[in-house]
Cobalamin biosynthesis protein CobD (Desulfofundulus thermosubterraneus DSM 16057), 317 residues
Amino acid sequence: MLGVVAAYILDLLVGDPRWLPHPVVIMGKIIAGLEKILRRVARSPLSLRIAGVVLASMVVGSSYLAVHFLVRLAALVHPWLALGLEVWLIATTFAVRGLAGAARGVLLSLSRGDLDLARRQVSYIVGRDTHAMDVREMTRATVETVAENIVDGFVSPLFYALIGGAPLAMAYRAVNTLDSMVGYRNDLYRDLGWASARLDDVANFLPARWTGLLLVAAAWLSGRRAGGAWQVIRKDARRHPSPNSGIPEAAIAGALGVRLGGLNYYGGRASFRAYLNESGHPPQVDHIRQAVDMLYLTAALAVISGLAVKLIFCSLL
């Protein structure tokens, strides 16, 4: 448990320094390489679905085993080396500092009126087209991204780190990386990415609902609309195309009193996402700062509540 706390603090202090190798980069290269190999042998929709299961199994399984044996090997050298390695590996699965920094970069550019830079910064954190976004669209995109990534950028890896340490946290990060690379519903990935997308839905199911409760608590503690957060979760979360992302986005919409969702463009094609808190106001630039504040408070509450539950559980064994 101390390793998880240390990893949380490490992420807050240093994030992901560019000069350090990051496991997700390695995962990405492995996924891309395996995809090329599997596409050579799988042609039909059924064979591509089977290949997708193989891809997900290999990447997630190898991520778990690699970290497990790395930590075991480090323990043979010295227990402190193993602890330090585990702390660093868990910290690489967290993204609180990185997410907050990216959102604040957009906030700063919008505040200065540098819309071209803001569009470029937004393009780093969303998959939608950004070249024609106005201030309101960039603000909404950033708030939605902060809300959604509270789950897969912190609460989910924390959840799995508390259960199974660095190996399980890294296995979760592999699931999330697979989903971000191949878990699309377009013609190219509908079959090959099916298993990865479903696995990501399952992996985030409990953490997303935990996050919803945490966001309501964070709204109450920060003097925001806790009741609104809860009501919008209950009313609108299921309208989101993702079974999990709708919960934190609805909570943020209710807590900040803003309307999220609406028209987005992907590769030049329009896609309308149902409104969350339709009666709310369009988000203003300052709502980015408020969303980041909610991110930090929710992360702290997740650590505190997660440790409390684990201590209670361990005391009962």
Observations:
- The chain has one domain: 2-316.
- The mean pLDDT is 95.
- Residues 2-316 form one domain.
